[in-house]
Amino acid sequence: MELLTIGAFAKASRLSPKALRLYDELELLRPARVDPDTGYRYYAVEQLPQARLVAWLRRLGMPLAEIRTVCALDAAGAAREIRAYWARVEAETAVRRDLAAFLVDQLTVESGDVESRRDHTTMLELRYAAHTDRGHVRPANQDTVYAGRRLLAVADGFGPAGASASGAAVEALRFLDEGEELAAGSVLNVLEDAVRGASEAVHDLAEGGEENGTTLTALLWTGSKLALVHIGDSRAYLLRDGELFRITHDHSVVQSLIDEGRLTPEEAESHPQRTLLLKALGGGMAPLPDLRLHEARAGDRYLLCSDGLTGVVPDERIKELLAGEDAVRTLIAEANAAGGPDNVSCVVADVVPPTHPPVSVE
Ligand code: MN
């Protein structure tokens, strides 16, 4: 083994001796030999690629513990870890980006600039329908749906008291449907308080316990914008100009494996852990929902649904049925025709000009 002094190794690796001493202290790159008398560090030529890798990973912002893991792997394993790390960074950044956009929006409304004032003069309304069905297999329905003039919500409860959990979460949001119109500028704070209330309500269930919890996906109407609150694997979709967009990201183990490139969407469909959640209200999980303010347009059609629909009906079919008449009924019928393995819930809402006929609820 050819040994280089720290100076020679620094030169060859284009890292400073100071950086090398730091990597040694952090146990990221130990010298091949330390002279017991002088304390001088010596490095093997074979350590050069690793030294460069450590430097690159530090530049990437990877935490030290993860760098240690990567360095212990072969090239293929290291590539996989770096891809997974970056997928997590992007997911976290996406959540922060949404929050930043939300805040910009809120402060723009507060600043009362011309464009936001115009928003308030072109008020639109929601026309909505909602239904939930037990399905063909489950002994009870633990989903809860709600649709009102301003609030649309789907919650999918789990655990022995799952039905109470989903019911309590939606009940805690219902006050948002009443009272005076919310300004888009205050909606972030109001929603966060409401979700905290929903989370506490789930925890306070008499039949409580860590195993009970619920998803919650809700849209709150502010007259021109929709505030979205989302936690779990229920979903919100938007049908606009004939295109279907999923506007929520599943907080599920399987989705995170897809994001990290460890699983393909096709493999996910039959994954044994596809119903495991990463986030929910209750269930001993972090009650941190995604919050977003969404610009609505006349002609938009929104769908909120539980995984009883998306687990068995592909997006392409959802798009076809959602575009048709009586979509709530036909979507639920489609899930049941596919075996109805889970409770299935749908809320469909159209954004319409205020001259439209009065609302109807199923
Ligand atoms: Mn479900």
Total of domains: 3
Based on the structure given, which CATH architecture of the largest domain is correct? Answer: 4-Layer Sandwich
Bound ligands, named by name, code or SMILES? manganese (II) ion
Number of strands: 15
Mean pLDDT: 88
How many whole angstroms does the radius of gyration measure? Answer: 26 Å
Helical segment tally? 13
Secondary structure topology:
Layout: E1 3-5, H1 6-13, H2 17-25, E2 33-34, E3 41-44, H3 48-60, H4 64-71, H5 75-111, H6 114-121, E4 125-133, E5 143-147, E6 151-158, H7 162-173, H8 187-203, E7 213-214, E8 216-221, E9 225-231, E10 235-240, E11 243-246, H9 253-259, H10 265-269, E12 281-282, E13 290-295, E14 301-305, H11 307-310, H12 315-322, H13 327-337, E15 344-352
Helix pairs in contact: 7-8
The protein binds manganese (II) ion.
How would you sum up this structure, described in words?
α7 (162-173) packs antiparallel against α8 (187-203). The protein folds into 3 domains: 3-72, Orthogonal Bundle (Multidrug-efflux Transporter Regulator, Chain: A, Domain 2); 74-121; 125-352, 4-Layer Sandwich (Phosphatase 2c, domain 1), CATH 3.60.40.10. Helix content is 41%, strand content 22%. The model is unreliable at 116-121 (pLDDT under 50). The chain has helices spanning 6-13, 17-25, 48-60, 64-71, 75-111, 114-121, 162-173, 187-203, 253-259, 265-269, 307-310, 315-322, 327-337, and strands at 3-5, 33-34, 41-44, 125-133, 143-147, 151-158, 213-214, 216-221, 225-231, 235-240, 243-246, 281-282, 290-295, 301-305, 344-352. The site of manganese (II) ion (MN) has 6 residues, from α11.
